[in-house]
Design a protein that fits this description.
By secondary structure, the chain is of the alpha+beta class. Helices cover about 45% and strands about 20% of the residues.
Length: about 300
């Protein structure tokens, strides 16, 4: 069984610059490979194989003046970006053929340097965990990690993520044996709702904490400050990070609450039954009905549309 364990990273100023360069190189390799495949499709030619793409957009590109700077970063994240492109195409074809369940998946798109979330992946050849607890990345060095818990096994890969709020995370993939909880007699059915988060079959109710609504005042102030900054200015960039941090705090609080609720239910019950209900669609439908009621109840003399 594969698990993901995420930890905060605290790179130095120099390491942040090296990570930014690696993010950019991985993005360029991804876009170059995507452009080659799009040209092949327009010309009616078969898609180039991954090995051929690696030779053309990495190995051969390093020898050209326009892409010589690719040699300044580790090759491992560049290769992994090509594998990410393969996965994106595979998900698209599986979605079209019906092999992939869930929402339809579109064709891969070009990545932008303006994306607020950046990521790159290292395999075993590209990282090491040193004895001093630092995460050593190829051509970046030892990065300080906040080890909130010990890794359950040796990781097979690590993904470095820069989120919109400017935080760095290391997401390790580990292979562990599943552990079984002791058996209990209780079973529970869960009915998800809108006014309350959920109602359990034993009569207990889980209230909706509404973290976003509680933080609405701070979010409005931060977004109002962002809207007043000139586009392209450094102050606007600072204000954007402030808004992102406010949203990240809400998301982290919600995720922590969800994990605590689900862990408690799993540990206290042997079986959990859920209804097959599209809660997101139900929420969207309720919002449409509310908007319609407000529109029809609006005084005729004050109609603005």
């Amino acid at each position: 069984m594969h698990l993901r364990c995420s930890y905060r990273l605290y790179p130095t100023v120099g390491q942040r610059a090296l990570l930014a360069r690696t993010f950019g190189c991985a993005r360029v390799v991804y876009n170059d490979a995507l452009a080659v495949r799009k040209e092949a499709r327009k010309g009616g030619r078969p898609y180039p194989k991954s090995t051929d793409l690696q030779k053309s957009v990495i190995t051969a590109a390093k020898k050209t003046p326009g892409r010589a700077w690719l040699a300044s970063v580790g090759v491992d994240p560049l290769i992994q970006s090509l594998r990410d492109l393969d996965t994106a195409y595979r998900n698209f074809f599986d979605s079209v053929s019906g092999k992939r369940a869930g929402r339809p998946v579109g064709l891969p798109r070009f990545k932008s340097r303006k994306d607020n979330r950046q990521s790159l992946r290292f395999t075993r050849n590209g990282f090491r965990i040193r004895g001093n607890g630092k995460l050593n990345l190829a051509k970046i060095g030892g990065v300080r990690v906040k080890w909130s818990r010990a890794l359950p096994a040796d990781p097979s890969s690590v993904t470095i993520v820069l989120d919109p709020s400017g935080r760095y995370h290391a997401s390790f993939v580990v292979d562990v044996e599943p552990s079984h909880l002791p058996e209990v007699d209780a079973e529970v059915g869960i009915d998800l709702g809108l006014t309350t988060y959920a109602v359990l079959s034993d009569g207990s109710v889980i209230d909706n904490p509404r973290f976003l609504r509680k933080a609405e005042k701070k979010l409005k102030a931060a977004q109002r400050e962002l809207s007043r900054k000139a586009k392209g200015s450094k102050n606007r960039a600072k204000a954007r990070i402030k808004v992102a941090k406010a949203h990240a705090k809400v998301a982290d609080t919600r995720m922590d609450w969800l994990h605590k609720q689900t862990t408690r239910i799993i540990r206290e019950t042997q079986a959990v039954y859920l209804e097959d209900l599209n809660v997101r669609g139900l929420t969207r439908g309720c919002m449409t009905v509310t908007s319609t009621l407000l529109e029809t109840s609006w005084p005729p003399g004050r109609r603005t549309g």
